Every structure is written in structure tokens, then in C-alpha cells.
Amino acid sequence: MKKMLFAAALLGMCLPLFGCSSQRQENELAYRQMGINYLNDGEYASAVEAFDKALSEKIGMVSDLELDICYYKGLSQYKAGDAKSAIETYSAIIDYKKKLPDAYYLRGCVYANEGDNAKAIADFEKAIDLSDDYEMYLNVANTLKGADDADDAVGYYSYIVENTQDASSGEELYYRGLAHMGLGEFDTAKEELDTYLESNPTDVTVLNEIGVSLMDAKSYSKAIEYFNKALEAGEDADLRMIKRNLISALEYTGDFDGAYKQAKEYNELYPSDAEVERELVFLETRKSDDSSNTEKKTSDEP
User: Fold this and answer.
1) Contact partners, residue 147, CB within 8 Å, separation at least 6
2) pLDDT tens-digit profile of 264-300?
3) pTM higher than the cut 0.70
């Protein structure tokens, strides 16, 4: 009975009722996809509305589908600037099902980005206890680093490094390399990740991570090589971030023709990205007016 009450709170509706019809489930899935599309296009308020409509189609016990929709809803609420509602959504998931590490982690992310370090760490520790894997340690470390809490981030990165001392291949080497990257130990990280890529040459995440780090080191030409490898390897994945990274790297090398071509292709795939639309206008101007844009810089300096 308690679980049923939590379900009612989670969905914002009264339970129990008769089982849902196939039409209701189709509607729920359709609204879910609509919400995801809005989320990807940066229309966060519309995404929240779509996810609420999806949840309103559910009658009966909560399934993994509704939990999945709630995760998307919480993310959309936070991106819309409504941290309080995002926390409430993730808390409702936790109240309904206590042992979901992702719910604690995502709520912790909101707390961290809102500057509530104590609550963030408490949620992150709970997420780690429930998941007990290096991926969660890495996610927590990256989130804390992104929230300007480098001191706490170091502890989580270091845990991975210290516990993968004997890694020579596979998943442990992957996380070890990314942890070294998080610690700023780029040469060690690149050596380990390149070794990992020998057995996993199509790992888009690693190829992109190395490319981003090479950009941070102002090695833009080398970064372009890794971004192109990622695009070749991940044709079925969502590659928008990698494509954006490639556009930036091409600009830094002075290859405005190449950057323009990539931005135009990106705009055709993701026409709702206003930032890239503005960048496309800028690149078109450089491509037309700057006669030096046909010559790539031999130096990686911007």
C-alpha cells in the first residue's frame, strides 16, 4: 500500500484504477519521445510539459518506463532553471524506490551545481554505495570538478587510480586513463587511453575525451584527428557534441572552410541549435571575406 501511495505522488494522479489500454501506452511513448525531442532542441519548458502529459497517460502501477520519464523530466526542469522542481522530481523517484543510484547521483548533481556541497556529497556517497563501480566514481568526480569543487573531485579520481594499479587493458584501464585525465595528468592518461583504444578502436567516448584534452593543451590539429575518428566510429550514436568540438578545433587551426562545412552539416542535422546557427553566420562571413581562410595554420596556436 505504501508503494501505491508513492506511485500516486510520483505520477501526480490517483491509484489504483483499471489497467492501462494499449492506446494509453502508445500516447505515453509518443509524449515521451516528444519530450526527448524538445529536450535535445533546448526547449526545456515544452519538454517538461510533454513528460507530464506522458505520465498522465499512466494508469496503474509505476513501471520502469515511468521512472525513465521522470529522469528526463528532472533533467528538463533543471535545464529550464527550476532546480527546486528538479530536486523534487528526483526525490519522488527516491521515495518510490530507495535503491536507484542514478536518482541519488542526479539529485546530487543539482545540489552540487547549486552550491550545496554537503547535500551533494551525501547523495554522491549514497549513489556510490548502491552502484559500487568505477563509472559512478568518475561521474561524481567530473561533476564536482565542473562545479568548481576540485578538492573533493581529486579524492574520487584518486580512488580510481589507486584501485586500478594493475590494469593493463579493458574497462579498468579505461577508467584509470579518464581518472588521470581528470587529475590533469594528460601524458599518462593519453598513453593509457591509447593502449585501451588498441583493443577498442571505436570507443567514441574515449576518442572524444582525448580530443577535448588535446584542445585544452592547444594541440588542435591532433584534436581534429581524434574527433574525426570518433565521428567515423560512432555513426549510429548522438554525435552532436563531437561535431561541435570538431567545428571549434577547425576554427582554432584557421581552417574556416572546414569549420563552415562541418557547421553547415551540423545545422542540417540539428536545425534548432541557435548557437551553431549564429556560428554558421560568422563562419560564412569569414569564408567569404577572409582570403587567408583557405590556408590552414601550421601552428596549433590560436
Assistant:
1) 112, 113, 115, 120
2) 999 888 887 878 888 888 898 887 554 444 444 434 5
3) yes
